Amino acid sequence: MPTISIERICPQAGVPGGRVRVECRGLDPQALDACALVFGTTPTRPVLATPTLVVGVVPAESEATTVCLVQDGRRSSAVPFVVATPLADNLHPVANPAVDAQGVIYTTVSGTGGQEVPVSVYRISPYGEVEPFASGIINATGLALGPDGDLYVSSRHDGTVYRIDATGTVTPFAEQLGLATGLAFDALGRLYVGDRRGVIYQVLEPGTARVFARLEPSVAAYHLAFGDDDLLYVSYSTLCGDDRIYRITPDGEVEVYASGLGRAQGLAFDADHNLYVVAHYEGQGGIVCITPDGRIEPVVSGVNLVGLAFGADGDLIVVDHSTVYRLALGVRGRPLP
Question: pTM of the entire structure?
Answer without folding.
Answer: 0.94
